[in-house]
Amino acid sequence: MHQAITLEALDFLLSERGAAILSALKPDDLRDQALLSALTRLRRTCSPQEAAAAVTLARLRLRAERKFTRAAKMFFTDEALQQASGEAISRYRARRYAAFDRIADLGCGVGGDTIGLAAAGHEVIAVDRDLLRSRLARANARVLGLDDRVRVVCADLRQQPWGTSAAFVDPSRRVGGRRVFSIYEMEPSLPDILTLRDRMPHMGVKVHPGVDDLGLPSGCEVEFISEGGTCKEAVLWFGDLSTGVPRRATLLPGGHTLAWEPVEPVPVGPPGAYLYEPDPAIIRAHVVEHLAWQIGAHKLDEEIAYLTGDRAVQTPFARCYPVWEALPFNLKELNRRLRTLGVGSVIVKKRGSAVDPEAFRRRLKTVPGGRTAVVVLTRAAGRPIMLICGEAL
Length: 393
Ligand SMILES: C[S@@+](CC[C@H](N)C(=O)[O-])C[C@H]1O[C@@H](n2cnc3c(N)ncnc32)[C@H](O)[C@@H]1O
Description:
The chain is α/β, with parallel strands linked by helices. The chain has helices at 7-14, 16-24, 35-42, 48-64, 78-83, 87-94, 112-119, 131-143, 190-194, 280-284, 288-295, 331-340, 357-362, and strands at residues 102-106, 123-128, 150-154, 166-169, 174-175, 178-179, 202-207, 221-227, 230-237, 247-252, 256-259, 274-278, 298-299, 307-309, 318-328, 343-350, 371-380, 383-389. It is globular.
C-alpha cells in the first residue's frame, strides 16, 4: 500500500469525509491481522484507493509518533516520513536562527524542519520541487496552526531569490530509490547548494553523518548531532550561523555540546578502573581528546576511540563501564574468567578488532542465571586485549 498516498488521495484525506474516516479508524484496526477486515469495512463507504489511503496514513501517523508529538494530526508518505527531521533535532537547530526573522527551508519535504523553525516563531518560506510533498508540508503547517508563518512554494530550490539571507537546506540523500552518502550525489549536490550562498550567506546544510571529511568546504562549522546515542546527521553551518569553531558534537535530547579547539595530545596508558565509550558524535567530530582532558582520562591506544581512567566521572558525552578485568586477548582464558565471575549473559563490543561480535558471543561459555558483563575487544598500545566490564553506570 506504499503508493496509496497520491495527490488525489491527499485531497480525499484532507476532505471532511476523509477526516471522518480517519478518525473512525482505531489503533486495533491497524494491526497486521486486522487490516483486511478494516479495509473491507471501509470499502462499504469508500473506493478501494480511498480505503487504502486512509489505512496507510493512519499507520504512518502511528510510526511518526517517534518523530512528532502531534503526529496523529499530520500527513505523510512513507518515504517522506523516513526523510523527515524529527522534532527534537529541528527544534534544536532552529535555535541557531534566532537572529533571523525569515528563513528559507529548502527541500522542505513534509515540513519537519519548517515546523521546527515556525514553532520557534520564524517566518518560513518552505520550498520543495515535489508537488505532493509541498502539499503535505502545507497541510502539516495548517493542522499544527503554523500556516500564518509558513509559505510553501513548489519549485526548484536553486531558483532564487527566496527573499531572505538565511536558509536551511536538507537535500535528498535517497536518489533513484537508493541511499547516497556523498555530498556530490545528494540532490542538489553540495557544490550546487554552495552557489546559493551569494544571496543567502547564512546557511545550514544537512549532510550524512558519515560524510567524507576531505570533501567538506573550508570555513564552515561542521556539527555532528546525535540523538539517543545514534549520530543522526552532520550540519554545515555558514556565515553568522557558524559559532566560529571548525567542528562540534551535540548530543540530544540534552543539548550537551563539545567544540573542537587546539588541545595537547592525550597520553596513552594501560586500562584503568573505568572504560569510557564516547558517543558516536564525539568520535565523528574528532573531539575524543577534548573529552579525555575534560574527564581526566587517557587513551588505551593512539588509534582507538576508547578512553580509560581510575575515576568514574559523570559525563553526557560517553558511557562509563567499570572494568572488572583487563587481559590479553585469549578466548579460552575469557571463558574461564567469565565462569569464575559468574557471568550469565554477555554484551560484546569491539573497536580495533577484526572479530565478528555476534559470532564471538556464541562461542562464550556462561553460567545460567549469572550476572551481565560487557566484554570489550580492543587494543592497548597496539596489542589485542579484552576487558571484562560491568554494565554501563
Ligand atoms: C531529505 S528531504 C527533506 C526533508 C525535510 N527537511 C523534512 O524534515 O521533512 C529532501 C527534499 O528535497 C527535495 N528536493 C531535492 N532536490 C530539490 C530541488 N532541486 N529543489 C527543490 N526541492 C528539492 C525533495 O523533493 C525532498 O522532499
